[in-house]
Automatic annotation (TrEMBL):
TM spans (from-to): none
Protein's organism: Vibrio algarum
Cofactor(s) required, per the database record: Mg(2+)
Name this polypeptide is given: Phosphoglycolate phosphatase
Statement: the UniProt record of this protein carries the keyword DNA repair: no
Catalytic class of the enzyme: hydrolase
Keywords of this entry: Carbohydrate metabolism, Hydrolase, Magnesium, Metal-binding
Residue numbers binding Mg(2+): 12, 14, 177
Length: 228
């Protein structure tokens, strides 16, 4: 498959550029315990992230990827407020960039690619975390989970970016670790690059049929040439 037309790359954040689960897991655990539930382990949270904080905390209360239908909206709302406080207080000190991230972003920037970030993570946390890890300057746009009415896999954010920057769908590549990223790309009509190491609810990223399956971010440099 040829990616010679690609000029614009949209990146997911959690599970793609950043391993944020250690901090998320602590905040989820603090929340559920404060509400009288049993402790949660990090390995559980790794399968629950990717659909936004409301869904994450509902899964924590349910202790399952399948949200308990008996949970009330008021309980989820209360838990979400507590989670936000705990997550903010964490300072995101346990999160870290995956190997090859900085060098890959630097090389793609040098090659002339326009890059944006599209994450389902709560918008208010995204700028601080990106600054903390020194990656803000690589991106023309930073879109968080509340910046549009719908999150990935809905293509609304990708379509907005295409219109803003004047690119066609076949000029965009979506880079992510979950089926939400791959489905968002398919729904927008653009190419998709799926990473094997992130968070995908315990499923193989190959099951979502991305155009490329890769074990590390630097594999992007093998398929994307320098722009003229």
């Amino acid at each position: 498959m040829s990616f010679e037309k690609v000029k614009f790359i949209a990146f997911d954040l959690d599970g793609t550029l950043l391993d944020s689960v250690p901090d998320l897991a602590v905040a989820v655990d603090q929340t559920v315990q404060a509400l009288g539930y049993d402790p949660i382990e990090e390995i559980q949270v790794r399968d629950w992230v990717g659909n936004g904080a409301d869904v994450l905390i509902a899964r924590g209360l349910s202790r399952s990827i399948h949200v308990d239908e008996n949970l009330s909206s008021d309980e989820i709302k209360k838990a979400r407020e507590m989670f936000d406080r705990f997550y903010s207080e964490s300072g995101h000190k346990l999160s870290h960039l995956y190997p090859t991230v900085i060098d890959t972003l630097r090389q793609l920037q040098k090659r002339g690619y326009t890059m944006s970030l599209v994450t389902n993570k709560p918008s208010k946390f995204v700028p601080e975390i990106m600054e903390q890890h020194g990656i803000t300057s690589f991106f023309t746009d930073i879109i968080g989970g509340e910046d549009f009415p719908k999150r990935k896999p809905d293509p609304i954010a990708l379509n907005w970016l295409l219109e803003k920057h004047g690119f066609s769908a076949d000029q965009m590549l979506m880079v992510g670790d979950s089926k939400n990223d791959i489905l968002a790309a398919k729904n927008a009509g653009c190419f998709s690059f799926g990473l094997t190491y992130g968070y995908n609810h315990g499923e193989s990223i190959s099951d979502s049929n991305p155009d490329v399956v890769a074990d590390q971010l630097s594999d992007l440099l093998e398929i994307l040439p320098e722009l003229a």
